[in-house]
Design goal:
alpha/beta; 3 domains; Glutamine Phosphoribosylpyrophosphate, subunit 1, domain 1; 8-stranded antiparallel beta sheet; 7-stranded antiparallel beta sheet; Rossmann fold
């Protein structure tokens, strides 16, 4: 989604804001801007495209103020354009906004009826008008925000400047994250600690419906009704940042919220402008582990193409969550690279004396790189003469060192036993691998490659949108604890995602849950459906959609409680579901990543609601290094 940075203090706010926004570039964006109050007026500059375009625009400008806000935007309401870029200004009030104002139609009609001049197509500008309207009545920025907050429906985090009160920033949220950075004689606010860690390691994390008032020398926290709140700050040891909770209740929740960044880290090194290049795979490079970081990237890419051109089929071998990722990859590779793919559970593959034809690539997936069954499987594959490729999160792990070729999740340490960010990073890399393989086999048209790469680049922002609606997933989870069981269903790439959603519920909340291909429902599972059975249907708008709706109707006719996840404002799904959870519209290859996030969150919240140990579920280990 979008990135926010705000600053007030003795430094040049332009420098602080631009440095902070650069740290948030992983999210993806289509425009950027900043606003600084100086000499009683707001200097506002916006630009389309990357931050460099904004940097070029402001480098010859003079900046004398000491308070400002900045923003990178991914378009939701209103096309990407300079006039729709943030910050937005109305009558002395300037703000930046992450999220979506759901009741913006009603707000816009009311403002237009009062004669307001609305300069953009965004929902964000409307909030500036509302705050300006209230400020003119009460002449106090915090009080004006208190009066506006009940008027807003949706998921949002907002930071506000006021020309008539140039020594304070007001920020508030309901959904998307906001964090306050504490300094000496200066204070900061941002959508991610990553933007501020250069300047401070002391933070306050805002909860929903809270308001914070920042001045250079103090920070005050209030409820939505203006009641003062006391909260201790959190000091981050940045050297151990990746293994600290950073204000989250559990490591798992932190890791779920890290996913936009980890997905970006997984794919960025393999994307060159609008194309894919499988870099640093190192097929059959005897000195790969010593020279990995200094490989000749172009030479390695040429070698990867040469090696993969000779492959005639692919086996994917994994366990648990990684096995479900492999099932998604089968759809990717067969459609994009036009190559036959077999999926195997590692513990079955190693014992069934598999037949591996000549010119087969055996790909193993393991987060730890030490999974015992997967390690035995790759050894067996090599004994049978197969070309091997590992996809791991841990470099130099046993599986990584045995493999001929190497891909990495780059998800960072994952502390929670139930995998989240490693799974989505795996799916992101499998996206890239399928595109790269299709390119090598000349089965992927250039235009399609460019479109799918653009979708991958946009993915972190769309994941932020999903995360901003966490309160709705939490509310959905609270309704689930009284059901006798759960069926998760989907078609196509949504089928493995349904299996992963069921696994998360089993791992975390200890409920019996099963994942099925929706077309299989009438071949047995339909006997289970009654009013005590919850059905979670993964139903993006893809070419399976009409068939999936028919399956939902079958469930509905038998009294099942239907929770459906769909693409955007899908009225058909709303009509036939007890609960409908909207997911941003995306393409068929990135949908699995977007749709698994709410399933992770629902399992997390249900487990937390029941008082279970979310990070260390019973009987489970993070790395299964024994049979």
């Amino acid at each position: 989604m979008c990135g926010i940075v705000g600053y007030l203090g003795p430094l040049n706010p332009k420098d602080v804001i631009m440095q902070g926004l650069k740290k948030l570039e992983y999210r993806g964006y289509d425009s950027a801007g900043l606003a600084i109050i100086q000499d009683g007026h707001t200097k506002l500059i916006r630009a389309m495209g990357k931050l460099q375009a904004l940097d070029d625009k402001i480098k010859n400008e003079s900046w004398t103020g000491h308070i400002g806000i900045g923003h990178t935007r991914w378009a939701t309401h209103g096309v990407p354009s300079e006039r729709n870029a943030h910050p937005h200004k109305a009558r002395g009030i300037t703000l930046v906004h992450n999220g979506i104002i759901e009741n913006y139609h009603e707000i816009k009609e009311r403002l237009l009826a009062k004669g307001a001049h609305i300069a953009s197509d965004t929902d964000s500008e409307l909030v500036a008008h509302l705050i300006a309207e209230e400020y003119e009545k009460v002449k106090d920025l915090k009080s004006a925000v208190e009066r506006v907050l009940p008027q807003l429906t949706g998921a949002f985090s907002i930071v506000v400047l006021c020309e008539q009160s140039p020594n304070e920033l007001i920020a508030f949220k309901d959904g998307p994250p906001l964090v306050v950075g504490l300094g000496k004689g200066e204070n900061f606010v941002a959508s991610d600690v990553q933007a501020l860690i250069k300047y401070t390691n002391e933070f306050i994390y805002l909860n929903d419906r809270e308001i914070v008032k920042l001045e250079p020398s103090k920070v005050q926290l209030f409820s939505s009704h203006g009641v003062a709140i006391e909260r201790k700050s959190v000091t981050l040891n940045w050297s151990a940042e990746l293994t600290e909770k950073q204000g989250f209740a559990h490591f798992m929740l932190k890791e779920i919220h890290e996913q936009p960044r980890t997905v970006a880290a997984a794919v960025n090194s393999h994307l060159v402008e609008n194309s894919v290049r499988l870099d640093r795979v190192g097929f059959n490079d005897q000195n790969y582990f010593e020279n990995r970081e200094t490989l000749d990237v172009e030479k390695d890419w040429q070698n990867t193409q040469k090696v993969l051109q000779g492959v005639e089929r692919v086996f994917i071998i994994a366990c648990g969550t990684s096995f479900y990722a492999g099932n998604v990859a089968k759809y990717f590779l067969e459609k994009i690279a036009k190559i036959p793919v077999e999926i195997d559970i590692a513990s079955e593959f190693r014992y069934r004396d598999p037949v591996i034809p000549k010119n087969t690539l055996v790909m193993t997936i393991s987060q730890s790189g030490e999974t015992a069954d997967t390690l035995a499987a790759i050894r067996l594959a090599k004994e049978k003469g197969a070309l091997t490729l590992s996809l791991c999160n841990v470099k130099n792990s046993s599986i990584d060192r045995i493999a001929d070729g190497h891909l990495y999740m780059n998800a960072g340490p994952e502390i929670g036993v139930a995998s989240t960010k490693a799974f989505t990073a795996t799916l992101a890399i499998l996206n890239v691998f399928a595109l790269g393989f299709g390119k090598i086999r000349k089965s992927l048209p250039v235009k399609e490659e460019q479109e799918l790469v653009a979708s991958l680049r946009a993915l972190p922002s769309k994941m932020e949108v999903v995360l901003s609606y966490d309160k709705y997933f939490q509310a959905a989870a609270k309704t689930l604890k009284d059901f006798k069981g759960f069926l998760f269903m989907g078609r196509g790439t949504s089928y493995p995602i349904a299996m992963e959603g069921a696994l998360k519920l089993k791992e975390l909340a200890y409920f019996h849950a099963e994942g099925y291909a929706a077309g299989e429902m009438k071949h047995g599972p339909i006997a289970l459906i009654d009013e005590r059975m919850a059905i979670v249907m993964v139903a993006p708008r893809d070419h399976y959609f009409e068939k999936t709706v028919s399956n939902i109707e079958e469930v509905r006719a038998r009294g099942g409680y239907i929770i459906s996840l769909g693409s955007g404002d899908d009225q058909a799904l709303k009509r036939i579901s007890k609960q409908y959870l909207p997911i941003p519209v995306s393409d068929w290859m990135t949908n699995p990543i977007l749709f698994v996030v709410p399933l992770q969150l629902m399992a997390y919240h249900l487990s937390s609601e029941l008082g279970y140990d979310v990070d260390q579920p019973r009987n489970l280990a993070k790395s299964v290094t024994v049979e």
